[in-house]
Specification:
transmembrane helix; NADH-ubiquinone oxidoreductase chain 2; 0% strand; transport; mainly alpha; globular
Length: 346
C-alpha cells in the first residue's frame, strides 16, 4: 500500500476514535464510528486476496448495521425524552437496542460470528488493530451508558461470550481464529463488570490490549499463521518462542503474570456485589480458554511436528525483531507486583 494512503487511513482511525471518545452528542459519536469503519476497510482488503475482500465486506455489513442501530436507539431516546446527550439514555427500548448494537460492534456473543471470519481474512497487524484499537470506541460508549443498561442482560451476554469464546476456540488450528475467540472470551469479562466498576473494566481492556499486542507482534515477527508453523519456530527463534509462551500464559490469566490481575479484581468485585454464582461460572468457563492457550504455548516451546509438514521450513526470521516486542513482552508478564500503583493511577 502507498505510504501516503496508509498515513491517511491511520490518521482517520485516530480521528474517528478521538471523536467518539470525546463526544457527548450521539450524532458525533456515530460519525466517529463511521469514520473508523471506513478507515479500516482499505487496511483489511489491502492484499486484494478474495478472502480479504470477503472479510472487508463482512466487516462493513456488520458495522454498518450496528451503527444504524446505534443511530436508531439515540433517535428513539431523543424522540421520547428530548435529549441527545449520551449520558441521558433513559428509554428502556433505546437501552435494549443500544446493548444489541454495541454487542454487535464488539463481537459479543451471540453477535460474534463475524469476528473470527474477518480476523482470519486479514494480516496479523490489521488483526491486532481490529482486536484492540477498533474495540475502544464501542467500549467507551458502553462505559458512558453503563448506568442505563440492563445488568442482567449484560451478565447473560458476558457469560455466553466467555463460554462460546472458550468452547469454539478448542478445535482451531489457525492462530488468528484462536486469538479471535480469545478476544470474545475477554470481552465477556469486561461486559460483566462494566456496570459495577467501569474503571475496572477499563483496566481490563488496557491490560488485554497490552498482552494481545505482544502476542500478535511476536506471531507476526516469526511469520506464524498455523499451529504446524508454530511448532517449528523454536529452532529459528528460541527467545521469541519463550516470550510467546509467557505472554500466552499471561493472556490466560495465570499468576504471577500480568493477566491474572484483572481476573482477580473482577472476581473480587463480583463477590462484593453478591454475584458469587456469576463469578464462579465465569471463572470456570475461563478454563476452556486456558486449554487452548496452553496448547499454543506447548506448540511454541516444546514439541516438534511428529510428521513431515507440507510447508517450507524457515530457518531464519524474515523480519528483524523490534524493540517494542521486547518491551511489550516484559510488561505483559511483570506488572502484577506493581498492581497497587496501577490501581491508584486508574
Amino acid at each position: 500500500m502507498d505510504p501516503q494512503a496508509k498515513l491517511i487511513f491511520t490518521a482517520s482511525l485516530i480521528l474517528g476514535t478521538t471523536i467518539t471518545v470525546s463526544s457527548n452528542h450521539w450524532i458525533m459519536a456515530w460519525a466517529g464510528l463511521e469514520i473508523n469503519t471506513l478507515a479500516i476497510l482499505p487496511l483489511i482488503s489491502k492484499s486484494h486476496h478474495p478472502r480479504a475482500i470477503e472479510a472487508a465486506t463482512k466487516y462493513f455489513l456488520v458495522q454498518a448495521t450496528a451503527s444504524t442501530l446505534i443511530l436508531f436507539s439515540s433517535m428513539t431516546n431523543a424522540w421520547q425524552t428530548g435529549q441527545w446527550d449520551i449520558a441521558q439514555l433513559t428509554s428502556p427500548t433505546s437501552c435494549l437496542i443500544l446493548t444489541a448494537a454495541i454487542a454487535m460492534k464488539l463481537g459479543l456473543a451471540p453477535f460474534h460470528f463475524w469476528f473470527p471470519e474477518v480476523l482470519q481474512g486479514t494480516s496479523l497487524i490489521t488483526g491486532l488493530l481490529l482486536s484492540t484499537a477498533m474495540k475502544f470506541p464501542p467500549i467507551t460508549l458502553l462505559f458512558m451508558t453503563s448506568q442505563s443498561l440492563n445488568p442482567t442482560l449484560l451478565a447473560v451476554l458476558a457469560i455466553l461470550s466467555t463460554a462460546l469464546g472458550g468452547w469454539m476456540g478448542l478445535n482451531q488450528t489457525q492462530t488468528r481464529k484462536i486469538l479471535a475467540f480469545s478476544s470474545i472470551s475477554h470481552l465477556g469479562w469486561m461486559a460483566i463488570i462494566t456496570i459495577y466498576s467501569p474503571k475496572l473494566a477499563l483496566l481490563n481492556f488496557y491490560l488485554y490490549a497490552l498482552v494481545t499486542s505482544a502476542v500478535f507482534l511476536i506471531l507476526n515477527s516469526i511469520n506464524t499463521l498455523k499451529l504446524t508453523t508454530l511448532m517449528t519456530s523454536w529452532t529459528k527463534t528460541p527467545a521469541l518462542s519463550a516470550a510467546l509462551m509467557l505472554t500466552l500464559l499471561s493472556l490466560a490469566g495465570l499468576p504471577p503474570l500480568t493477566g491474572f490481575l484483572p481476573k482477580w479484581l473482577i472476581i473480587q468485585e463480583l463477590t462484593k456485589q453478591e454475584m458469587a454464582p456469576a463469578a464462579t461460572i465465569i471463572a470456570l468457563l475461563s478454563l476452556l480458554s486456558l486449554f487452548f492457550y496452553l496448547r499454543l504455548a506447548y506448540c511454541a516451546t516444546i514439541t516438534l511436528p511428529p510428521h513431515t509438514t507440507n510447508h517450507m521450513k524457515q530457518w531464519h526470521t524474515n523480519k528483524p525483531t523490534n524493540i517494542s516486542i521486547a518491551i511489550l513482552a516484559v510488561l505483559s508478564t511483570t506488572l502484577l507486583p506493581i498492581s497497587p500503583m496501577i490501581l491508584t493511577i486508574v
